[in-house]
Amino acid sequence: MTVETMGAITVAYTPEAFPALWETTITKPSCPIDGALIRTLGGGLCGTDVEKIQQQKVPVGTILGHEMVGEIVELGANYTPNSTNPETCFSVGDRLVIAHHVPCGICHFCLNASPSSCEAFKASNLVPGGFTQFFTVSQGHLHHTCFKVPSHIATREAACTEPLACVLRAVRRVGNLHNGSVAVVGLGFIGLLASQVFKHQGWQVLGLDINPNRLALASITDYCHSVAHPTEQEPYWQEWLEAQPTGKVDVVCLTVVNEATLALALQMVRNGGTLLLMAGQGKQPVSLNPSVLYYREINVVTSYSPALEDLQQAFKLITTRAVSLTPLLTHPLSIHQFAEGFKAYTQGEAIKVIFSFAEDGKLV
Fold first, then answer.
1. CA-to-CA distance for 50 and 48, rounded, in angstroms?
2. 21 in helix, strand or coil?
3. Class of domain 173-302
4. Contact of 245 with 271, CB cutoff 8 Å
5. Closest by alpha carbon to 136, among 40, 31, 233?
6. CA–CA separation, 253 and 194 (whole Å)
7. Contact at 8 Å (CB) between 186 and 255?
8. How many angstroms separate the CA atoms of 164 and 315, rounded?
9. CA angle 126, 127, 130 (to 5 degrees)
10. What is the pTM of this model?
């Protein structure tokens, strides 16, 4: 019996914390009896992928990649569509966007709006990982976290479904406010998606970043009402704050968490306001004085991963082109250029890196 192999991007730590390249070879997975074998078309590089590599949070040899789009090449003999969702009547050849974790829907966490803490959610994944030529998904994935991509949506657009869903859940957890205002600190991919969502929902949006290219992009695309450098343009954003009902913002959305951004957030947020954390801390530990939160009644809201309803909404927003993605997809690269994409991300040159698995390296 011949064992089929394929290429994969696996984590292999070096002094530069760069992963190994495509030459890594692994065994091609077999189709699950009730799931599907997927040929990878493209996928996005997530900040959590970079964090896991740089901070050595996963074992050597781990295959990352979870913002994936692929084509069904085989369906398991026992696969049956979700009886409550006719859109899961998938066929070989269908192009799908696939989210990596599936909650059970019946545990205490799921029943209380914490699906990302569900044990089934944590245990499920793409096998062996997304940054491979082929991976498998379970029937649970096919029933709940896979969506057939229409022909008018490009693979690179569809790959943004899961990160957009993360943003939607974060904004949903903050809730709706009367005449709400938000400062988005960090105008990378997540920050610019969050700016769009907040603005679309009627919030006044101030965008802050130290990278002049990101500030320029935010200005050109009109994702924010105003943009500013946090230190070099402080008089400008202070004037913007003073125009708000309380002279502060209701919410500070942090996509970068360090001592400087936390201090800035506490300076900008009103009493009774909210710090929305959409990232973990970097290599350096940070401190947050609970007394400041207590006496000012500042809420801390976090959002790490989306719920099923957020995935559904994100997919709808993308397929109806209700969000602007093209200006954000700055680095469409071949998977053979993984190290190049990794470097562009870590050096702040890229907004979003999307890898193609096509032989010619082109994303469609």
1. 5
2. coil
3. alpha beta
4. no
5. 31
6. 8
7. yes
8. 8
9. 55
10. 0.95
For the chain, what is the radius of gyration of the CA atoms? 21
Q: In which residue are the tokens 């896979």 written?
A: 146
Residue with tokens 């990352």: 64
Q: Say how many CA atoms lie within 13 Å of 356 toward its Cβ.
A: 16
What phi-psi label fits residue 73: left (phi over 0), alpha (psi between -120 and 50 degrees) or beta?
alpha
Q: 37, 59, 252: which is closest to 142 by C-alpha?
A: 37
51 with 72: CB under 8 angstroms?
no
Collect all residues with Cβ–Cβ distance below 8 Å to 17 and sequence separation of at least 6.
53, 54, 56
Cα–Cα distance between 362 and 364 in angstroms, integer?
7
Structure-token match 């998606």, residue found: 193
Strand 249-254: give its sheet, edge to edge: 226-228, 204-208, 181-185, 249-254, 269-277, 299-302
Domain boundaries, the chain: 5-160+329-356, 173-302
Lowest mean pLDDT among 79-93, 241-255, 314-328: 79-93
Class of domain 5-160+329-356 (CATH, top level): alpha beta
> What 3-state class would DSSP assign to 84?
coil
State pLDDT tens for residues 71-101. Answer: 999 999 999 998 888 888 999 999 999 999 9
pLDDT tens-place string over residues 179-221: 999 999 999 999 999 999 999 999 999 999 999 999 999 999 9
Tell me the HSE value of 40 on the side-chain side, using a 13 A CA sphere. Answer: 32
Q: What is the mean pLDDT of residues 155-174?
A: 97
